[in-house]
């Protein structure tokens, strides 16, 4: 039986532990914190799932596989994690992201609708749009619940035999003649293969120190909806909003009170490391988010009632690093998901298990090759 250590049980490590355990590996899954914690990238109430992908049609097979695996996880863990409420990309027709979503849907033959300005205003008045702006509606989109998802994956991994070692920071991972030696809480564990899934903490592990993964701050804001029913997932799809004055992702009200936005137009501030994460947003940042809500979301009280700060690892090209760890044997790296890894996590977990157990995968992951950047 192959003994595999998974370092990090955010959504990526949790899904990988689940897929490995199902395939009979002996899994040791370490995390410095507890399942579903809010210090890294896998928390904050909601995540977007979408299939018409502005990042490229090459992701579509992986997204479709991920959707099937989300459903498998839900069934096995008796959890409701993914609500398919549809997804809107909103902006001028020639906006880069609006055009890219449309192109992806056309290239991959995905169902979609393009709503002109009048139709957009009629169907989704929750968004204020300017003359000439359009909405691209992706029916294969929805909202995921991040913390329950991580917990469901770890529960399922444990049920399949994995050891979940929460509150076990890995302080050393050293390659040996025939595997790796992992040190955590003053104990050493010898394994055949190691999966590094440390999210934004990547560069704090010696073996990953040279990888081009920058920890950055992403801030989310919740705004109270005046008509909650009109802003619930039954009425309001997830959205990617692109406008000359602001850009954000937008999530329907899941708590019966407030919608959430994650501003994109303000950039992602670099962090020295995720442990330097501020616990709330800077006043200027909050003011700009408030202005965006006042301008583009007519049905909310445009002052955030809640703020969440999270850390994520970004690569220079905003595509993850997923593959054998350069310069080492029997090691897989999965990090740098650059703000869009959650929806794909079960498929990435399957790939991590493939790589650890067989050394290859049938999924096309060429664009994620960790060797594409000079080290
Ligand atoms: C605010 C925000 C909004 C986002 N929105 C979306 C979205 O709508 N849709 C989407 O698809 N994606 C989205 N993303 C991106 C997605 O959430 C991330 O890509 C994904 O969660 C990354 O997961 P991860 O497991 O790599 O990292 P993390 O969740 O950060 O997990 C890494 C884990 O490793 C552990 N760890 C690190 N070092 C060690 C060590 N030495 N020893 C033990 N444990 C260690 C950490 O404690 C942590 O639990 C968003 C991200 C953020 C932050």
TrEMBL record:
Q: Would the keyword Cytoplasm turn up in this protein's UniProt record?
A: no
Q: Which Pfam families match?
A: DAO
**UniProt domain FAD dependent oxidoreductase: residue ranges:** 3-355
GO MF assignments: flavin adenine dinucleotide binding; sarcosine oxidase activity
Instruction: Provide this UniProt record's keywords sorted from A to Z.
Output: FAD, Flavoprotein, Oxidoreductase
Identify the cofactor(s): FAD
What the entry lists under InterPro entries is as follows:
FAD-dep_OxRdtase, FAD/NAD-bd_sf, MTOX
What name is this protein filed under?
A: N-methyl-L-tryptophan oxidase
Origin species: Saccharopolyspora terrae
């Amino acid at each position: 039986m192959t003994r595999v250590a998974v370092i990090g049980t955010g959504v990526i490590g949790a899904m990988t532990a689940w897929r490995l355990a199902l395939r009979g590996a002996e899994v040791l899954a370490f995390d410095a914190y507890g399942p579903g914690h809010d210090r890294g990238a896998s928390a904050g109430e909601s995540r977007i799932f979408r299939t018409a992908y502005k990042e490229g049609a090459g992701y579509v097979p992986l997204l479709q596989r991920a959707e099937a695996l989300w459903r498998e996880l839900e069934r096995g863990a008796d959890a409701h994690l993914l609500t398919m409420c549809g997804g809107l990309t909103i902006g001028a027709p020639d906006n880069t992201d609006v055009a890219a979503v449309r192109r992806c849907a056309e290239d991959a033959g995905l169902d979609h609708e393009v709503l002109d300005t009048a139709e957009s205003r009629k169907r989704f008045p929750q968004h204020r749009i300017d003359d000439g702006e359009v909405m691209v509606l992706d029916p294969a989109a929805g909202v995921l619940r991040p913390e329950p998802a991580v917990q469901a994956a770890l529960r399922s991994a444990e049920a399949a035999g994995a050891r979940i070692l929460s509150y076990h920071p890995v302080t050393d991972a050293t390659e040996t003649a025939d595997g790796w030696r992992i040190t955590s809480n003053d104990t050493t564990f010898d394994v055949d293969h190691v999966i590094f899934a440390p999210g934004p903490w990547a560069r704090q592990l010696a073996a990953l120190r040279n990888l081009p993964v920058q920890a950055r701050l992403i801030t989310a804001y919740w705004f109270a909806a005046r008509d909650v029913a009109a802003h619930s997932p039954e009425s309001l799809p997830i959205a990617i909003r692109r406008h000359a004055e602001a850009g954000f992702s937008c999530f329907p009200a899941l708590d019966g009170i407030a919608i959430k936005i994650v501003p994109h137009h303000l950039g992602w501030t670099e962090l020295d490391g995720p442990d330097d994460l501020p616990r709330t947003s800077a006043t200027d940042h909050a003011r700009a988010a408030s202005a965006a809500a006042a301008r583009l979301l007519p049905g909310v009280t445009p002052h955030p009632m809640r703020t969440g700060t999270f850390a994520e690892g970004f690569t220079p090209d905003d595509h993850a690093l997923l593959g054998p760890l350069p310069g080492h044997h029997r090691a897989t790296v999965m990090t740098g998901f650059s703000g869009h890894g959650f929806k794909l996590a079960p498929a990435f977990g399957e790939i991590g298990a493939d790589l650890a157990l067989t050394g290859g995968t049938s999924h096309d992951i060429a664009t994620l090759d960790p060797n594409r950047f000079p080290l």
